[in-house]
Design brief:
about 375 residues; alpha/beta; Spore Coat Polysaccharide Biosynthesis Protein SpsA, Chain A; 2 domains; elongated; binds 2-acetamido-2-deoxy-beta-D-glucopyranose; glycosyltransferase
């Protein structure tokens, strides 16, 4: 009797042991009763993309999506986002992508533009990091499109980077895309649901939506008076012919929503090129306090033909000073943060760079590293 019961106990122990092994070895076939099999201990802290992993790897969700094809016009909506970056700011593009995906449950397709030198680097970064599996395409910007058209008169030579002008050429870069697209500068972080911005109603006859400079918080922090006179030379006769009010509110071109079909129809690219070229021959813009770069031609072309974007969807000037100018609680309510100015969140000092750090995905090749004073940002 004693021997038998020892045997029984031994067999029970063996069964229990095998069961435990199966529980951990074949996790997908046995339900996780005890919630023990959490993989988060293995996952990197920076692997903050649970939503993407679910969307791409759970067949159940894909089926739900397919079932819903006939369920209504909203069911199939894809948000198209364009971001442009060169080698110096590539990490900004990565953090921005991650922030958009972390804060939406909608399908986002990324249309990424960079230069010849960085296309492979970008592809590798996405493919070998937690961003693997996102829906994206990479285009290299043909610098020849803007050769001889850029003339920077003010001090900020970095505004002359050809990639800054890629936003002028959206229909030429993406000829198959006829729908709406959101353009976002690579020194931004999105904290709201991108679908809300994408769906903004654009007034009939308007060509895009931009955030105005003279409204709400965005005004207070800028030392400019936020009007067209800060950006254009009103002595120029071509500018005068446009009948623009010098005191009209300026807008920021770092974030906009537009319909590519109307952009194409109205020859926006041709109009922007016209002003760029004219500015190389005569003074149209660039000597004013607002500076040159890609902003003034857009202000000329979109004058009086844009719908305002709500100010929480473009909280800017975070890069204007190194010190904190917004409170932590205001920052937490903003839907989009923009570090325009000199102090980038991947640089030595910048305000609220902790928000940016949350979304940064380290570069597996180690080429791009945020600079931090007194502390390293390690994976
Ligand atoms: C299908 O879409 C509608 C509205 O878009 C939603 O209310 C519904 O829950 C969806 N159905 C499934 C099965 O997900
Ligand atoms: C587009 O606009 C530019 C500048 O105004 C003009 O030179 C060009 O001919 C236009 N192209 C078309 C197809 O209308």
């Amino acid at each position: 009797m004693g021997i038998l019961s020892t045997r029984k106990v031994g067999m029970l122990l063996a069964l229990f042991w095998m069961g435990t092994l199966c529980y951990f070895w074949l996790p997908d076939h046995i339900p996780d009763f005890l919630d023990l099999r959490t993989k988060s201990t293995v996952k990197s802290k920076l692997d903050v993309l649970p939503k993407i992993h679910k969307l791409n790897h759970l067949p159940l969700q894909v089926n739900v999506k397919q079932l819903n094809i006939s369920a209504g016009p909203d069911a199939l909506d894809i948000v198209h986002v364009c971001i442009t970056s060169d080698g110096k700011t590539l990490g900004g593009m990565i953090a921005l992508i991650n922030s958009i995906l972390t804060n939406t449950k909608h399908h986002v397709k990324f249309h990424l533009v960079t230069d010849d030198d960085n296309a492979d680097h970008l592809g590798l970064w996405i493919q070998t990091s937690s961003l693997k599996g996102i829906d994206y395409e990479v285009k290299t910007f043909p610098v020849s499109w803007v050769t001889g058209k850029i003339k920077i008169r003010g001090g900020r030579q970095e505004l002359g980077s050809p990639l800054n002008y890629a936003r002028y050429y959206l229909p030429r870069l993406f000829p198959d895309l006829k729908e709406r697209i959101v353009f976002i500068d690579d020194d931004c972080i999105v904290q709201g649901d991108i679908m809300e911005l994408y769906k903004i109603p654009i007034k009939e006859g308007d060509l895009a939506a931009f955030s105005e400079d003279c409204k709400g918080m965005n005004k207070r922090l800028s030392r400019l008076s936020n009007v067209y006179a800060e950006f254009l030379d009103f002595k120029n006769k071509h500018v005068q012919e446009k009948n623009i009010r010098p005191g009209a509110c300026s807008f920021n071109t770092g974030v906009f929503v537009t319909d590519l079909a109307s952009w194409h129809r109205e020859n926006i690219t041709g109009q922007l090129e016209y002003w760029m070229e004219l500015n190389t021959r005569e003074e149209v813009y660039g000597n004013e306090r607002g500076g040159g770069g890609s902003q003034p031609p857009m202000m000329l072309v979109f004058y009086d033909r844009y719908t305002p974007i709500e100010s929480l969807w473009h909280v800017r000037f975070l890069g204007w000073t190194s010190g904190t100018s917004y409170s932590k609680s205001f920052i937490s309510h903003a839907k989009l943060l923009h570090w325009n100015g000199k102090f980038k969140p991947w640089g030595r000092v910048a305000q609220h760079s902790d928000v940016w750090d949350k979304y940064f995905v380290p570069d597996p090749s180690g080429k791009f590293r945020p600079v931090r004073r007194g502390r390293g940002l390690q994976a």
